[in-house]
Amino acid sequence: MISFDHVTKRYGGFTALDGVSFEARPGRVTGFLGPNGAGKSTAMRVAAGLTPATSGRATVLGRPYGTLPNPGRHVGMLLDASAQHAGRTGREVLTLGAILTGVDRRRVEETLDLVGLTEKEAGRRVRNYSLGMRQRLGIAHALLADPEVLVLDEPANGLDPAGIRWMRDLLRGYAARGGTVLLSSHLLNEIERVADDIVVIGHGRIVAGGTTRELLAGSGTTVRSADDARLRSALGTAGLSASPLAAGGLLVDATPEVVGAVALEAAVVLRELRSGDGRGLEEMFFDLTADAAREEVAA
Ligand code: ADP
């Protein structure tokens, strides 16, 4: 379990985190989603005890990270994959990690295997690694002690589609065995495929949170029928607003039951009827990202 309780972080007059509260629960993958500059890394650094909060508190397994006895055994972190010592080989990086956390050296070979770094790659110096290999090594390092909690900042950066899929399976398996995973990304489609829960951050504030299913369902009902024009007119007569979807069908501001009843009344055959279409989250995220992009241009 990771908990943020009204965490605020100021750098001089700039507020990077503004009263951030959320939890990442065991047995679940929590996706921390926000455009670049939203405050994801800052929040993760606060949880890892690397950056002190100005006010509020972040705890991991019920305590501030720094007060956990041997935190490296309980919490695996990947905060900056480029921070590995460039002159060491991948195997050396992991061996040092194993010594520092008191983990059996045999785990080094196991984790190399787990993240798919070959014998030859493990023997190469990190300075000669691609970004994707560095991410794999960073994930291996986080998994060394087989911790209960994983905190990964943008772990998919630099991974190819097969790598992203591999990571998704790895994290889902880890959570299925009871682990807590908090991972950040600035890409909605990356998060929605792996996360059970999503927390959205923009300008240092949490702007949405819930299960992925709830958030993607958004509000309203998506309906496709044999005659959308007639259905739309019947919905209008019933006082319901319906907007056409780009991919065909309508998004109606009402529950599926109500939409079904209107369709029955109008004798329109339905082809699909379901809650929401994910527009809510996607549009909100699009707005946040557009804001961030404008600020980058202005800066
Ligand atoms: P994200 O991880 O979502 O891209 P960050 O947490 O890295 O966002 O950054 C959030 C904001 O805080 C950014 O505007 C960034 O410039 C600012 N920031 C981060 N670290 C510092 C620092 N050490 N000093 C001043 N500002 C910082």
From TrEMBL:
Protein name, per record: ATP-binding cassette domain-containing protein
What's a single GO MF annotation on this record? Answer: ATP binding
Which InterPro entries does UniProt cross-reference here? AAA+_ATPase, ABC_transporter-like_ATP-bd, P-loop_NTPase
- Coiled coil stretches, renumbered: none
**PANTHER family in the record:** ABC TRANSPORTER, ATP-BINDING PROTEIN (PTHR43335:SF4)
| Keyword Nucleotide-binding annotated | yes
Q: Which family does it belong to?
A: Belongs to the ABC transporter superfamily.
Residue ranges annotated for the ABC transporter domain, each copy included: 2-228
- Which superkingdom, per the lineage? Bacteria
Record keywords: ATP-binding, Nucleotide-binding, Transport
Does ATP-binding appear among the keywords? yes
